């Protein structure tokens, strides 16, 4: 059995529903028997790998499509819209994600003969590359530990380290190295993003963010946009609107309540921004999602588990 066929078998047996956290720390499995509508969520710092099917991820004005011959990595928290675009009951979408641990990456960098500098933070925080057999096989061995749970505590950290190594020496290695460098542009931008995800409803400007990052305002703006593929204020708008949508769907807020809760003073501005991002006004979007139990479950679960 080939490595990818073995992974398909493993995920098919161990995925219990659309998303399945596992006994292997940082490993999550995905299974879907049909295409999905675009769902909005935060992609965390992870490796994403598909073994059957196809997915499209949109970040700002940029679209990324990947399948079983590619992998996707994210190095910071990014607000995306993602959709499974190829799946069926006969050939379901099967995929996995593996969290990145900056401390493990930092230790590994001491032994990996590759360079890297502070400028690595200028690389986009989301990218796709071709999947090679060595990386695929190391991922297969990590997932296979689900069949021998007694081995997980000892072997999972070793196999995960090998996966990180394969990624570090691969075409996207410069992006991954930046996660582990304590004062890289990327880690500074990540610190700003983490703060924004907590304080998105507050009023702040680029100067506030620059002080947090320890950069000048022009430098912060330039590096942030390079990593996130959007400006800091566009990032805040995405975070606000995703949270507003969650409140509309899961908490039952009306449009005015949701807009005010996420930082909008003007209901009309909230409605304009919401329609620009989601294609329909907030009230109509909420009614559509509430009227479709499957869409509602997906939207709420996407936010909860992403």
UniProtKB/TrEMBL annotation:
Family matches, as InterPro entries: Homeodomain-like_sf, HTH_AraC, Tscrpt_reg_HTH_AraC_N
Superkingdom in the source lineage: Bacteria
GO MF term list: DNA-binding transcription factor activity; sequence-specific DNA binding
Listed name of the protein: AraC family transcriptional regulator
Coiled-coil portions: none
Residue ranges of every copy of the HTH araC/xylS-type domain listed in the record: 190-288
UniProtKB keywords: Transcription, Transcription regulation
SUPFAM superfamilies, per database record: Homeodomain-like (SSF46689)
Signal peptide range in chain numbering: none
């Amino acid at each position: 059995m080939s490595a990818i066929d073995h992974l398909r078998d493993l995920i098919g047996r161990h995925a219990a529903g659309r998303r399945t956290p596992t006994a292997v720390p940082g490993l999550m499995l995905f299974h879907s028997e049909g295409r999905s509508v675009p769902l909005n969520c935060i992609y965390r710092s992870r490796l994403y790998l598909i073994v059957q099917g196809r997915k499209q991820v949109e970040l700002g004005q940029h679209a990324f499509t990947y399948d079983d011959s590619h992998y996707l990595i994210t190095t910071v928290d990014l607000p995306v819209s993602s959709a499974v675009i190829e799946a069926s009951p006969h050939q379901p979408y099967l995929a996995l994600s593996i969290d990145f641990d900056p401390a493990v990456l930092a230790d590994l960098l001491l032994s990996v003969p590759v360079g890297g500098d502070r400028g690595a933070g200028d690389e986009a925080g989301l990218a796709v590359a071709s999947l090679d057999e060595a990386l695929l096989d190391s991922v297969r061995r990590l997932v296979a530990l689900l069949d021998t749970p007694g081995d997980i505590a000892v072997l999972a950290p070793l196999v995960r380290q090998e996966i990180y190594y394969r990624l570090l020496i691969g075409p996207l290695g410069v992006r991954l190295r930046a996660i582990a460098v304590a004062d890289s542009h990327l880690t500074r931008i990540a610190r700003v993003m983490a703060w924004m995800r907590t304080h998105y409803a507050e009023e702040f400007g680029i100067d506030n963010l620059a002080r947090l990052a320890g950069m000048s305002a022009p430098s912060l703006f330039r590096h942030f946009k390079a990593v996130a593929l959007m400006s800091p204020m566009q990032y805040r708008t995405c975070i606000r609107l995703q949270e507003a949508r969650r409140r509309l769907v899961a908490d039952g807020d009306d449009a005015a309540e949701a807009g005010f809760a996420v930082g909008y003073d003007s209901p009309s501005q909230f409605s304009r921004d919401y329609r620009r991002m989601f294609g329909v006004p907030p009230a109509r979007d909420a009614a559509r999602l509430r009227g479709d139990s499957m869409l509602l479950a997906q939207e709420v679960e996407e936010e909860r588990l992403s």
